Amino acid sequence: MIRRVDSPHLGVNFDIGHSWLNGEPPRETTRSLAGRIWNVHVEDIAANKHFHLVPGDGDLPFDEYFAGLRDIDYHGYLTVELYSYPEQPDAVGGRALEYLRGVL
Prior knowledge:
By secondary structure, the chain is of the alpha/beta class. Helices cover 40% and strands 21% of the residues. A 3-stranded parallel β-sheet has the order 1-2-5. The chain has a two-stranded antiparallel sheet with strand order 3-4. The model has no long low-confidence stretch (mean pLDDT 95).
C-alpha cells in the first residue's frame, strides 16, 4: 500500500507483536518500512496467541526487532502496549521498562 499510494504522508504504526504473529521476518520487515515507521508498538506474545504480554514474558525476538530498528536509524517512539493488564499498570509498566532498558 505504501508503494502504491507513494506519499510521504503515509506511514505505519509498526506493531511488532502483530508482525510476529503474521510470520514476518523481523529485520527484513523493519528494513522494508524504513522511513515510514511513525511509532512502534511493543508487547510480547507467547505460543502464537494474540494476547499482549509484558516484554520478556513471551517469544518475541526483541534483539532482532531492535537491531532492525537500529539498522534503519529509527529514533522515534516505542509505545508499550499492555492494555491486557488494566488492574496492574504500574507493576507491568515497571517490569516492561526494566526489561526494555536491558535489551536496548
